[in-house]
Amino acid sequence: MPAWPGVPLPRSFYDRDPLVVAPELLNKVLASSSGRAGRIVEVEAYRGDIDPAAHTYRGKTARNATMFGPPGFMYVYFTYGMHWCCNTVCEAEGQGSGVLLRALEPIAGIEQMRSARARVKRDQELCSGPARLTQAMGIAGAQNGIDLVSAQQGFSVLDDGIAPPENLVGTARIGISRGMEHLWRWYVPGNVNVSKR
DNA sequence: TTAGAGATGATC
DNA sequence: ATCATCTCTAAG
Predict the structure, then answer these.
(1) Which nucleotide's C1' atom has the smallest distance to the CA of A82?
(2) Does at least one atom of strand C sit less than 7 Å from the CB of A114?
(3) What is the pLDDT of residue A1?
(4) Residue whose Cα is closest to the C1' of C7
(5) Which spans of this chain does the record mark as coiled coil (predicted)?
(6) Over the stretch A97-110, which tens digit does the pLDDT of each residue have?
(7) Residue A192 belongs to a domain
(8) CATH number (domain holding residue A146)
């Protein structure tokens, strides 16, 4: 029983500039074999070559190695001493670019999400932030480097026929201190699951 | 409803 | 010292 009906995005979807991939990921579905799924409603693009806010800007390290790998894999990193965040790797191997998933609209397995985030009161608090959604979906360090295209390792990004919003406008990314000039954050307008300011 | 600060540890 | 964050607490 799949978490949600849909077709996994092909490798070629990810093998493009993250500035193109990020807005197209809106309204796609992040699904887990555990039965949990959420619609992607907020994303940010990061580009290793020209983006001082990207983890990959200063070259390859043990931590960011996944993001320098082939497209369509999941880069998961640990930050602020307690949080995990989840990206999709983009462009060809060696580029070091990706898309940070910042918020989901919960659509399946909501009871499991609540178990993973017991303090939460409203559904819209379950996945409305990059570290919240990894908690709710059960994503942590063990998921760094898994293949989202083959969907053989428990997670995939699905197209279920819902198109991205039209007339999107990029906004400033959240929580960074450099690269502020790049307006590389996109979200589904009006969706209550988008992270708060 | 909003603002401020603590938590907590890997990274470079 | 910084960090692609969250949550609690106190004040308004």
Answers:
(1) B8
(2) no
(3) 60
(4) A119
(5) none
(6) 999 999 999 999 99
(7) no
(8) 3.10.300.10
